[in-house]
Amino acid sequence: MNKREIIHDGVSIKIYGTENPEQVLIHFTDEITAYNKIKKAMITDKGIYCNGVSCMISQLLQDGGVPTHFIRQISSRDQLCWRASVIPMEVIVRNVVAGSLAQRLGIPEGLIPKEPIYDLCYKSDDLCDPIINDYHALALGLVNRTDLETIYTMTKQVNAILFPIFRKVGITLVDFKIEFGHLADGRLVMSDDITPDTARFWDIETGNKLDKDRFRHDKGHVGEAYKTVYDRLKSVF
Ligand code: 5GP
Most buried pick, 10, 92, 106, 158, via CB within 10 A? Predict the structure, then answer.
């Protein structure tokens, strides 16, 4: 698989064109960032664990009937995906209160809401991805009504598939962020990777954090935590 022009030169992820104009190669680096890229570091083999977790999750979602941009894993750090026109909107699912929700509403971390909470954010580095609601998403033309309904349906399906899989390997899927996009043929798909960079994973037994919060809050052992998520998921994949 030959990499061609760079389409997205991110810190943790780089996206390249391929010989097929409808396909892209997503490459995972060992770099980690937080707080809108203010904090940066290298974590050995992080790219391998993130690509591995992302590929396994995308395959599990596709097997469960969720359309995604994923085609196949190409190497330890690379995956082949369909090129998508990504909607500039993040969908966050929260099964347990943590992070910005705990801060914003003054709710203790770890509280389990009566039902999962869904947040929408407008994707903008300059504005730090502000939270929006369905009305903003429709009024700003980010999505139409049909796509918004499909996005919620698919997001609930993603959670329904992943939550029990992670529970089986002793991990609580606390929350995660996903994005959606349209393929060249117009199909709406999940066009994102779910990894310890984009989700919160807590060990059920110990409560240990196995995700980017270790880096955000200087807790150390970041690579080990990412490897734990990778190893446990692999054990049931
Ligand atoms: P929070 O709103 O608590 O900061 O994040 C909720 C969840 O979504 C966390 O798992 C977090 O990692 C993920 N998330 C939210 N926004 C972003 C983002 O811009 N980039 C990444 N990588 N993850 C995000």
Answer: 158
